[in-house]
Design goal:
By secondary structure, the chain is of the alpha/beta class. It has two domains: 78 residues, ATPase, nucleotide binding domain (Nucleotidyltransferase, domain 5, 2-Layer Sandwich); 161 residues, Nucleotidyltransferase, domain 5 (2-Layer Sandwich), CATH 3.30.420.40. Helix content is 37%, strand content 23%. The chain is built from eight helices and twelve strands. The strands form three sheets. It has a five-stranded mixed sheet, with helices on both faces. Strands 8-7-6-11-12 form a five-stranded mixed sheet. Helix 3 packs antiparallel against helix 6. It is globular. The structure holds adenosine-5'-triphosphate (ATP) and magnesium ion. The site of magnesium ion has 6 residues, from loops.
Length: 270
């Protein structure tokens, strides 16, 4: 059995892998790197009755990996590259290569992956952390569920400037309901529901457009979306609209918050 640990900026993910199959998954809030990694690993061992002697090695990655020195509990522990982990994890999940990946975590990273090479295309500081940070100040809500509940009752036309607000016709391939400026019209009467929806919409529009340009640049017809931000029904709807406009398909693998941890576990180490 191999263990993959991804110590992200916000959440630590741990998976166990045996013969190319993911067996167990656990996550924990990344308070400090050492506590969250050992805590999540311990939880995975205890909850699943794993015999520690069955573990051949541990591969760790993510921003917190540099804080872990030496072996964990005497098991051979190696640090592996985060971007390679995302690429390998995503190729494993969709069972394809030559893919563009948008990993939506606390921030967002764009990767191109094939079997020979994994390339870091670039990224954006706009991601899950942006949603939480803006929501905390603008609508005094700091849980994801709270934001999603509010957003369900929101109306974007109370916050965003839409093309139909400023022109009578369509513009190029943009319909009249397209966004002209996120937050560009915010009404004095805009409710927390409207603002919650507008924050989510803005973040996923930015990520969606960056993904489209990355996919076009690589001649790819689709983008695999990973990270905790992959599993967001409102974000998915925003990406759906972009997909319809630009002909780029977004794919959401199951357990996409574990992509990086899975890829870390699958990386061959010397
Ligand atoms: N359903 C959701 N939709 C969008 N974002 C979410 C959701 N659930 C959690 N998040 C946000 O996703 C972020 C964590 O995602 P993830 O676990 O992929 O990141 P990380 O690995 O900790 O960070 P990074 O990879 O950027 O270092 C947090 O900012 C969290 O608020
Ligand atoms: Mg991450």
């Amino acid at each position: 059995m191999i263990i993959g640990i991804d110590i992200g900026s916000t959440i630590t993910k741990v998976v166990s892998i045996r013969e190319n199959t993911v067996i167990n998954r656990v996550k924990a809030r990344a308070t400090d790197a050492v506590t969250s990694a050992t805590g999540a690993f311990g939880k995975l061992i205890l909850e699943n009755d794993i015999d520690i002697k069955d573990i051949q090695k541990i591969n760790i990655t993510g921003v917190g990996a540099s804080r872990i020195r030496g072996n964990i509990f005497g098991i051979e522990t190696r640090k592996v590259d985060e971007f390679s982990s995302i690429g390998i994890g995503a190729m494993f999940q969709v069972q394809r290569e030559n893919i563009v990946i948008a990993n939506i975590g606390t921030g967002t990273v764009l990767i191109y992956a094939n079997k020979q090479k994994i390339t870091h295309i670039g990224g954006s500081g706009v991601g899950g952390g942006t949603i939480l940070g803006l929501a905390k100040k603008l609508i005094q809500t700091n849980t994801f569920n709270g934001i999603m509940d509010l957003a369900a009752g929101g109306d974007l036309s109370h916050v965003d400037l839409l093309l139909e607000d400023i022109m009578e016709t369509e513009l190029s391939f943009l319909g009249r309901e397209s966004t002209a400026a996120n937050f560009g019209k915010i009404l004095d009467t805009a409710k927390n529901e409207d603002i919650a929806l507008a924050i989510l919409n803005m973040v996923y529009q930015v990520i969606g457009m960056l993904s489209v340009f990355a996919a076009q640049g690589k001649g790819s017809a689709g983008v695999v979306v990973t990270g905790s931000g992959s599993d967001n029904p409102i974000g998915k709807k925003t990406l759906d609209v972009i997909s319809g406009m630009y002909g780029i398909n977004f794919e959401f693998p199951a357990y996409a918050e574990y992509t990086t941890a899975i890829g870390a576990g699958l990386i061959e180490t010397p």
